[in-house]
Amino acid sequence: MNMKKIILTGLLLLPVFAVRADERSQEILRKMGATFNGYNSYSIEFTATMQGEFQDLDGFLIVSGDKYYLDVYDSEIFFDGRNGYTYSESNDEVIIETPDPNDTRLFANPTRIFSLYERDFNSNFKGTVTVNGKSTSQIELTPKSNDMGYSKVTLYADAQGMPVRLIYRINEYGNDLVINVSKITANVPVTRDTFLFDPTKYPGVEIIDFR
Fold it and tell me: What CATH number does the domain containing 31 carry?
């Protein structure tokens, strides 16, 4: 599984958990979803860690509707609502793909991240714990499908219902992806160009077009 897709999925799932749940966890998830859905756009600053793979990678994400831009590690990922552009600085190449809307696998279809699928998760409230100096509600989310690429997600939300940390148990690696959210900014300025890859800004880039 591509490491960049793992991180991308972890971040983009933040605002859209919609699950059949026990009452307490459902209330928290509903509040979180309503908050993010009320934004015209938002940005997230975060770090990502996976034992044995990478440590404290800084990342930055901007989302507006079904569009997003992610900057993490040596890569930038653009999604304009139709096509995805993954630029690798180390390889000096960009891969262009159009996600298949009929592919239900989460990692294979980024557009699915922005939809609400109430049938996909079971959830349980696990209590209150301190994370990064904040009192948080711990919620365990279990995918009902084996095709999502992970077996469990643990979400930690603060008193305002905002995500502080997510921990993913990744099937392929057998260990955890930990995403710590350091800052969320609502209604950040965006334009159409925010989510488009402009090859003129990357002289000499190799373009690999799979569309």
Answer: 2.50.20.10
Between CA 29 and CA 35 the distance in angstroms is 10
Strands 176-186 and 20-21: unpaired
Burial of 126 (0-12, 13-18, 19+ CB in 10 A): middle
Q: How far apart are CA 119 and CA 204, in angstroms?
A: 45
Q: Which helix (H) or strand (E) holds 59?
A: strand 54-64
Helices assigned H by DSSP within the chain: 3-12, 23-37
What's the domain range around 165? 3-209
Vertex 149 angle, CA 1 and 85, to 5°: 50
- Under the banding of pLDDT at 50, 70 and 90, the label for residue 110 is very low
**Using CA atoms, how far apart are residues 17 and 20, in angstroms rounded to an integer?**
10
pTM of the full structure? 0.80
